[in-house]
DNA sequence: CGTCAGGTAAAAA
DNA sequence: TTTTTACCTGAC
């Protein structure tokens, strides 16, 4: 293996990309169930000398078998292993504003969706939220409405079906009104009980629209602009969330998700700290970085976090 | 207790 | 069209 496909697995897992919550960590492995050709497979990833290795499990009492090469290909897609990092680093080094980033984010890669619906729920849930909270919420949602799978390594939960979310209750009250619990405090099978707050109706309505009017395959085939305008129609999806969905969920690498932090960082690096509006930052990022926009956004954020620039910009 | 967090939708200017 | 404001929730 040449050194271009290095990865920092832990950094990539914990970087808060809204394709999905981090996989379940057990010793030095990260594990999660991935549906491949309709078959649930437990993917186990671990890092060895900056490269990543995978092993797989099939459900107990099943006779599924899928070729390792097919599973490896899927794993490689999720961790974006075909992306040439050293070429990207050469690109960053050409811009003195960006050159310093590589030393803080070495091996950081896109963590792409294993399930597009999961990336949409995650992205909506992440809006005006903290990483810990939205990832906890999505994990809870999967435990409550996702199918459970038994592997030699334990139980894992898949992503709920669209119908499961559409039929879910939004809050304690709605659940209480529709069930025969004696006390409302017993209600916990509802979206708000997963800690999603006011995003509950967004998640439900967005899922209804996805189910009735949108097709993941169609969105994948669209141009970036067309796809952006399309998913912007989903409730709870503004420009930032739309770009997250397109980048982490649909692999539109030209997306430059722009939030308040990216705004501060880009303003600091490229506009002498002037207060540039978020939509302008987004335009700038897309024009300046082209197909690298998604990666530059990812690196900018973690560079700022790790270098201390973020604390500096807080003031 | 008040403030804040990786925005959005709805109201107001 | 652009700029404020309210908003679940849990952590400090």
UniProtKB/TrEMBL annotation:
Domain of life, source organism: Archaea
EC top class named in words: lyase
EC number: 4.2.99.18
UniProt domain HhH-GPD: residue ranges: 125-305
Keywords: DNA damage, DNA repair, Glycosidase, Hydrolase, Lyase, Multifunctional enzyme
Catalytic reaction list: 2'-deoxyribonucleotide-(2'-deoxyribose 5'-phosphate)-2'-deoxyribonucleotide-DNA = a 3'-end 2'-deoxyribonucleotide-(2,3-dehydro-2,3-deoxyribose 5'-phosphate)-DNA + a 5'-end 5'-phospho-2'-deoxyribonucleoside-DNA + H(+)
Molecular function GO labels: class I DNA-(apurinic or apyrimidinic site) endonuclease activity; damaged DNA binding; oxidized purine nucleobase lesion DNA N-glycosylase activity
Family in the record: Belongs to the type-1 OGG1 family.
Name of the featured protein: DNA-(apurinic or apyrimidinic site) lyase
Organism: Methanobrevibacter woesei
């Amino acid at each position: 293996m040449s050194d271009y496909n290095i990865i920092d697995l832990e950094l990539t897992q914990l970087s808060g990309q809204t394709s999905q919550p981090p996989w379940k960590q057990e010793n030095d492995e990260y594990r999660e169930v991935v549906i491949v050709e309709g078959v649930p497979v437990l993917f186990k990833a671990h890092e060895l000398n900056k490269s990543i290795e995978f092993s797989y499990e099939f459900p107990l009492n099943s006779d599924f078998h899928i070729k390792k090469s097919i599973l490896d290909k899927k794993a490689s897609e999720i961790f974006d292993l075909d992306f040439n990092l050293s070429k990207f680093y050469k690109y960053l080094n050409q811009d003195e504003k960006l050159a310093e980033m590589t030393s803080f984010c070495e091996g950081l890669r896109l963590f792409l969706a294993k399930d597009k619906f999961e990336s949409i729920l995650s992205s909506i849930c992440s809006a005006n939220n903290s990483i810990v909270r939205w990832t906890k919420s999505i994990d809870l949602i999967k435990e409550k409405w996702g199918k459970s799978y038994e592997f030699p390594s334990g139980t894992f939960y898949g992503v709920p079906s669209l119908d499961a979310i559409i039929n879910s209750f939004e809050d304690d009250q709605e659940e209480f009104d529709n069930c025969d619990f004696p006390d409302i405090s017993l209600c916990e099978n509802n979206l708000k009980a997963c800690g999603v707050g006011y995003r509950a109706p967004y998640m439900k309505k967005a899922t209804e629209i996805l189910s009735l009017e949108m097709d993941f395959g169609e969105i994948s085939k669209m141009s970036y602009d067309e796809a952006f305008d399309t998913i912007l129609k989903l409730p709870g999806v503004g420009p930032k969330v739309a770009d997250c969905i397109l980048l982490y969920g649909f692999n539109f690498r030209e997306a430059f998700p722009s939030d308040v932090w990216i705004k501060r960082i880009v303003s600091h690096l490229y506009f002498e700290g002037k207060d540039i509006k978020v939509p302008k930052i987004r335009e700038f990022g897309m024009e300046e970085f082209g197909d690298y926009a998604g990666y530059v956004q990812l690196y900018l954020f973690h560079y700022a976090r790790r270098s201390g620039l973020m604390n500096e910009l807080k003031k």
